[in-house]
Amino acid sequence: MRAALDAAGAAAAVGEVPVGAAVVRDGAIVAVAANAPRTLHDPTAHAEMLAIREAARILGRERLEDCDLWVTLEPCAMCAGAIAHARIARLYYGAGDPKGGAVEHGPRFFAQPTCHHRPEIYAGIGEAEAGTLLRDFFRERRG
Amino acid sequence: MRAALDAAGAAAAVGEVPVGAAVVRDGAIVAVAANAPRTLHDPTAHAEMLAIREAARILGRERLEDCDLWVTLEPCAMCAGAIAHARIARLYYGAGDPKGGAVEHGPRFFAQPTCHHRPEIYAGIGEAEAGTLLRDFFRERRG
Fold first, then answer.
1. H-helix or E-strand spanning residue B30
2. Is A44 near chain B, with CB under 8 Å?
3. Which positions are catalytic residues (chains A, B) (predicted)?
């Protein structure tokens, strides 16, 4: 989660909403990414998507059933769907997201009967730091 | 939808689940894509994601509020989330997908109170041909 939090900080520094993610396999980081939709002109470029795609590219396969995903914010529906498609084993996330989250909020994607893959889910990891990054970012933009 | 159906046929020819998508702006196709997670080693490489990402790249912006998406199958949660993030104006899709769909099935993403953007939605366009492509594909794989 340290790497994901650092990536989130880097995102804030370039004006992106500060969210970071890391894919971990056998205790080693395979890929780390920061949220970058504005920079990349890509509406799908959330940190989770970029980290999952990069890990799949590096491992040369579309399924990451031996990998865990660490992300600083509760994933949205798009990212939750990608986590299921990638067959991620464990999902660790920081702050909950009542507005855009799709794990414990909104569509509660993994609780749907049609969900074809549910990772083990651990919430609240690094929550304080992840939340502070987001609050500071939005406070600065409003001010 | 013709272009999306042709892309779906092309996907089947290389062993991918036959789904195709096109992004259209002012009556002209901006991007067409076929489902390609196996070919690209990318669990997020659904036809909708590839078409949205390519259109955003071509137009040089992360929001496609003046674009429509045509896709042969009901989008999953990942793709529905991407459609919302991209601010797609209208969604036209072919066959419904009771197993993986997230528009009229499962999470019903666009009907969630937390959904921040809902396109106009038109279902059943080209449904017969889209469904036949999928049925033939899965019948052949089982046989």
1. strand B28-34
2. yes
3. 48 (proton donor)
Task: Count Cβ atoms below 10 Å from residue A122 Cβ, excluding itself.
Answer: 12
**Mean pLDDT, chain A, whole residue set:** 97
- CA pseudo-torsion sign B80, B83, B84, B90: negative
Give the tokens for residue A74. 């509760």
| Cα–Cα dist A25/A4, whole Å | 15
Q: What is the dihedral of CA B125, B126, B128, B133, to 10 degrees?
A: -130
Could you tell me which residues are beta bridge partners of residue B56? none
Residue A142: per-residue pLDDT: 80
Residue B16 backbone phi and psi in degrees, to 5: -100, 150
Q: Report the CATH number that the domain containing residue A11 is assigned in CATH.
A: 3.40.140.10
State phi, psi for A27 to the nearest 5 degrees. Answer: 75, 0
CB contact under 8 A, A78 and B85: yes
Per-residue model confidence (pLDDT) at position B10: 96
pLDDT mean over A100-108: 97
| A76 annotated to bind ligand | yes
Question: What strand order describes the sheet that includes B20-25?
Answer: B28-34, B20-25, B67-73, B90-95, B120-123
> What is the total count of domains within chain B?
1
Question: Binding-site residues of B for Zn(2+), please?
Answer: 46, 76, 79
What value of ipTM does the predicted structure carry? 0.94
Q: What residues in B contact A99, CB-CB < 8 Å?
A: 114, 116
Is the CB of A41 less than 8 angstroms away from the CB of B64? no
Judge whether A48 counts as a catalytic residue. yes
Q: Which domain holds residue B47?
A: 1-142
- Give me the pLDDT at residue B141, please: 85
Query: How many Å apart are CA A82 and CA A69, to the nearest integer?
Result: 11
pTM, rounded to two decimals: 0.96
